[in-house]
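Page 42, continued from yesterday. The earlier attempt failed because a stray header line got pasted into the input along with the sequence. Redoing it now with the clean sequence only.
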Amino acid sequence: MEKLTATTIFESLASGVRLDVYRLLVKQGLDGMVAGEIATTLNVPPTNLSFHLKALTQARMVTAEQEGRFQRYRANIPLMLELIAYLTEECCAGHPEQCADFRAASTCPDAVLAPLPSTPAKS
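This time it went through. Structure tokens are written below.
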């Protein structure tokens, strides 16, 4: 991932409404949601939501697919995972095994965290 891409993503999520929308769409997974459902769930006026969905779409954080008269929005989860990898690729100066203490203190579920590299057995 390029630095400009990461910066664009962070700028798109710098709004509380957009962050709420993105987290809701992540929760929905592949099913996604139509704009009206998002607006109702988050209690956001449709015109306001449209502005935020456009910003997230331009940043590629969400995709939109036409379904008749509606647009179905889905979180771009692969891009989110790419961003996480970009942020952590140089964790602990290239020695990710040192991150074990940070992982233990994290409230993040183990399923979300990348596995630590195995250390070779000492003979």
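Notes: The chain is about 50% helix and 10% strand.
Reminder to self: strip header lines before submitting.
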